[in-house]
Amino acid sequence: MKQLWAPWRMAYIDQAAEAGDAQKAEGCIFCDKPKGDPAQDAEQLILHRGKYSFVMMNLYPYNSGHLLIAPYEHIGSLADLGVRPVENMMALTKRCETAIRQALNPDGFNLGANIGRVAGAGFPDHIHFHLVPRWNGDTNFMPILADVKVMPEFLQQTYAKIKEKLDLLV
Q1: 128 is a catalytic site residue
Q2: Is residue 8 part of a domain?
Q3: Which of 33, 54, 65, 90 is the most exposed place for a label (fewest CB within 10 A)?
């Protein structure tokens, strides 16, 4: 049997557990993060701020390059969101798909929204899209046997790659 050494994962797992507890106590990331100083966007993983919505990386991604596209309005359902924010979210999603293709060369994507807690929404009162790049062979035994997803790159490295391409498109 071969061993996979990824010692940086423990720091990531510890950080995820701490952030998960803090996240539950602190409120809505989709409201709070964009209120911060735009000079701190890289630290907050915000890739782009649009007129009605913004793009940020998922701190706990399913795959490298997993992005979240959310309106600034704290609304839980796509049906309740105005036309302009929906149009802006879709335009940003389209640009993000192009930027990720250029930066990471995935074989495909998953695009979705978890609307309501029962549907899996971590923030059920704030609608957001997930754009997840996928590669042939990106699934393996680790999530099934060990409940662990091995990420091949640090978030800030992926952030820089996508940001460079996205800035050219926006």
Answers
A1: yes
A2: no
A3: 90
Instruction: Report yes or no on 18 lying in a domain.
Output: no
* Residues spanned by the domain of 121: 41-169
Instruction: Supply angle C-alpha 122, 68, 53, rounded to 5.
Output: 110
- The residues that bridge with 56 in the sheet, in sequence order, are 46, 68
d(CA 148, CA 145) in angstroms, rounded, equals 8
Q: Which CATH number fits the domain that encloses residue 45?
A: 3.30.428.10
Count of structural domains, the chain:
1
What is the chain's pLDDT, residue by residue, as a tens digit (170 residues)? 455 556 666 666 676 666 555 445 568 999 999 999 999 999 999 999 999 999 999 998 888 999 999 999 999 999 999 999 999 999 999 999 999 999 999 999 999 998 888 888 888 999 999 999 998 877 654 454 445 566 667 888 889 999 999 998 86
Q: Which of 48, 126, 128, 130 is catalytic?
A: 128
82 located within any domain: yes
